[in-house]
Design brief:
Radius of gyration: 18 Å
Strand content: under 5%
Largest sheet: none
Shape: globular
Distance between the termini: 16 Å
Structural class: mainly alpha
Order of helices and strands: HHHHHHHHHHH
């Protein structure tokens, strides 16, 4: 990989951990992620006006992925309600390649080589380490984080098929933003009864900024995919679990024990092994 591709992948990792930190610090996290999504949707509207419509066969995948992403958002918010960024985020990110690899083995009969087996063992060990010792994650936060990872693995699989069916990644991404950006606010209204926005409020501005950071993270990894190999790039992006632990310590005042640092590194290395094996 070139230095530019490595820089893009690492930038995506830092930006992804950053927007999760914005969500974790929100006074009302469901409201925060909803406003973040609305900000991304506003950016997507002009693209929807100039790009062609998705083909008929893509709509099922667009709707299914958007519904799964709503579930992901709700469970991520719940996980952060019960656990810290440095605990929840590594479990969420580490469980995704773990679940995808195990799903391929169980459902598609894919053979597991040495590297995937090492990756599975390291991710599992890292997640278990986060559940042990001083400042360990609660059982509730671990279960919610694993459920969040399951939602991510599910919509990632749907997206992989949907993008091919659409034939245009920009069209697919634009309409995901529009559909997801409609369903999540609707879900918020169903759960809370009303969605209020004050564009002068610091919380609103922070949420909008978080949405833009999330968009930049997505753009950085897509740009990296266009320039380099998918497996190694995906693996590098998973270093975000280490960045999340550091952000949690520096900006959120979270505990950063030797055990937690070691667990995050183990999860990252395991995810890298799984990324390279894809």
């Amino acid at each position: 990989m070139s230095l530019s591709v490595i820089a893009l992948a690492l930038s995506a990792a830092v930006l992804h951990a950053t927007w999760n930190a914005v969500l974790r610090t929100g006074a009302d996290r469901l409201w925060t992620v909803t406003v973040m999504t609305l900000a991304m949707t506003v950016v997507a509207i002009p693209f929807a006006l100039i790009l062609p419509l998705p083909p008929a066969g893509a709509w099922l995948y667009l709707i299914l992925s958007s519904c799964l992403q709503v579930g992901y958002s709700v469970f991520l918010v719940a996980a952060y309600r019960h656990g810290e960024l440095g605990q929840v985020y590594p479990i969420v990110r580490g469980s995704v390649p773990l679940l995808v690899t195990l799903g391929g083995f169980a459902l598609a009969g894919e053979r597991l080589g040495v590297l995937p087996i090492i990756g599975i063992a390291l991710v599992a060990l890292g997640i278990m380490s986060l559940a042990l010792g001083k400042g360990r994650a609660t059982t509730t936060s671990i279960l919610l984080a694993l459920a969040t990872g399951l939602f991510i693995a599910s919509y990632t699989t749907v997206d992989a098929i949907g993008v091919r069916e659409t034939g245009n990644p920009a069209v697919y991404a634009t309409w995901i933003c529009l559909i997801y950006g409609t369903l999540l606010p609707a879900t918020f209204v169903i759960m809370r009864g009303k969605l209020t926005l004050d564009l002068r409020s610091p919380e609103t501005l922070k949420a909008i900024a978080g949405g833009m950071v999330s968009l930049l993270a997505y753009g950085a990894v897509i740009a990296a995919f266009a320039l380099g190999p998918v497996g190694p790039i995906t693996a590098l992006r998973e270093t975000s679990v280490v960045f999340a632990a550091l952000i949690g310590r520096i900006f959120l005042g979270e505990t950063l024990t030797v055990t937690r640092v070691a667990a995050c590194i183990v999860v990252a290395v395991g995810a890298i092994c799984l990324g390279y094996s894809q």
